[in-house]
């Protein structure tokens, strides 16, 4: 193999920072071509300089061992196969959801395909009972909302009478008085007077 011509220097393998040693023994960043086509000149690197990319990170063996303690298992024991152990909680939940979906699909299929008998009529009445509970809960929620709106109306009326009496009100209190009509509309929308 013929040596390269003297005009083109040879470089050793570059470091992480791109610094190479040329045939003359100097540490340099080799010339390169930029994206626009212009040539980036070769740069000499000062003797003894080590860029941060080339500095090895010190690793204390004792500190590393302390961080990884307990993850290796019992010394001398066979490694535990995690797949054979208990499934994690997310897998359990996914399995439960899938089982519920299958049960619902089976119920729909049996409801659609099976003729109604006395047993299925009893089953449908028990299914309808929880639906009436939700209607009761809805009625209770409406009652709670109506009670809260009535309280706001009472407070707004009190503030309105104080304002008419000549007392000065804060901006927040004036907003409550202004919203009095809106509150009465909300109460009527819920079905209360």
UniProtKB/TrEMBL annotation:
Biased composition (Low complexity): 8-17, 115-131
GO MF annotation: an example: RNA binding
Stored Pfam families: Mago-bind (PF09282)
Biased composition (Basic residues): 93-103
GO biological process: exon-exon junction complex disassembly
GO CC annotation terms, alphabetical: cytoplasm; exon-exon junction complex
Annotated Basic and acidic residues bias: 37-67, 104-114, 133-142
InterPro entries with a match to the protein in the record: PYM1 (IPR039333), WIBG_mago-bd (IPR015362), WIBG_N_sf (IPR036348)
Organism domain of life: Eukaryota
Chain residue ranges for the region called Disordered: 1-142
WIBG Mago-binding domain boundaries: 25-51
Name of this chain's protein: WIBG Mago-binding domain-containing protein
Source species: Sphaerosporella brunnea
Lineage: Eukaryota, Fungi, Dikarya, Ascomycota, Pezizomycotina
């Amino acid at each position: 193999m013929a040596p390269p011509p003297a005009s083109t220097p040879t470089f050793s393998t570059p470091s992480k920072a791109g610094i190479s040693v040329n045939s003359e023994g100097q540490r340099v960043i080799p010339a390169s071509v930029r994206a626009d086509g212009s040539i980036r000149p070769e740069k000499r690197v000062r003797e003894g300089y080590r860029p941060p990319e080339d500095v090895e990170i010190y690793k204390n063996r004792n500190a590393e061992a302390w961080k990884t303690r307990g993850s290796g298992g019992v010394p001398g024991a066979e490694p535990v196969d995690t797949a054979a152990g208990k499934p994690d909680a997310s897998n359990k939940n996914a399995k439960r959801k899938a089982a519920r979906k299958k049960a619902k699909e089976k119920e729909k299929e049996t409801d659609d395909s099976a003729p109604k008998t006395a047993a299925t009529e009893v089953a449908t009445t028990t299914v309808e009972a929880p639906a009436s509970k939700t209607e009761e809960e809805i009625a209770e929620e409406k009652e709670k909302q109506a009670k809260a709106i009535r309280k706001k109306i009472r407070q707004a009326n009190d503030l309105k009478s104080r304002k008419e009496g000549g007392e000065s009100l804060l901006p927040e209190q004036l907003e409550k008085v202004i919203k009095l009509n809106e509150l009465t509309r909300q109460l009527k929308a819920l079905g209360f007077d």
